[in-house]
Sequence to fold (326 residues):
Amino acid sequence: MINTKRRALLQVGVGSVGLAGLPVWAQADWPSKAMTVIVPFPAGGGTDAFARPISAVISKSLGKQWVIDNRGGAGGNLGAGLAARAAPDGYNWFMGAVHHAIAPSMYPNLDYSIENDFVPIAMVARVPQVLVVNPKKVPGDFKAFLEMAKANPGKLNYGSAGSGTSHHLAGELFKIQSKTDLTHIPYKGAGPALQGLLAGDVDLMFDGLGSSAQHIKSGRLNALMVAGSVRNPAIPDVPSAAELGFPNYTVTTWYGLWAPKGTPPEAQARMLAEIKKLPLDALIKDGWAANGAEFPDLTGAQFGAFVSAEIKRWAEVVKVSGAKLD
Fold:
């Protein structure tokens, strides 16, 4: 019969063998190397515009680089799928956006689930969308633009970050509420779409204020309307949709951070602690203000619940608008 002491030693030995194949979370050493955050859109778009200053601040704070990996394509779904399959080791992160709450209603065969394959960390920015136009092609006054659109059905076109993105759905909603016919031109990301607008390849765009603010202030683009009930302090002279007779036209672009499911809770907690410090940093505080953005206190399960509610909301918008992939 095995005595008590020997049995205890054997149990410890078996336990050690069982744990030998599992990754060990060395909290004191994290991070011991550079981390990667997949941004599922090209450089120059709204998601990228907010990810870069966050990367700079977190890299400095943690002493290891937070490297941005731009993986654009399929309306943000290509990068999301890659992030969902990334190693959940505390060194891989995902910066997504409102587009990923729209995708389930637009793409029937997604290879990821934003609700089931990721852990929500925090919302990092929220900005209103704004109707921006190329001043060489479209009048700088909303009333004149609306008259032009109604007099030329199908001739004015609007760019978007891709089919099924918030830019696309914002355009479809506007068409319904304004009774106009605009032609949708999808790009592979908000950055390329914005460049197309600046070049005059498209006439207008429903863009997140964060990526278009600098071009509005420089005069390269004209902002005709803020998609909401109030004006935005970053562009106080631009009327809200409600002022212009569209009280129900509200489209907000938000951005958030997720971790692949299975990421150690300790890594999640450490990253969340870094995220919570961001609004105190001058680079973030000033940058968000300049872009008309807010940094909501929406983290963890609350952020996850918000995303689930957004999925339901956009599903209804897709149904009512009849939006389809181009």
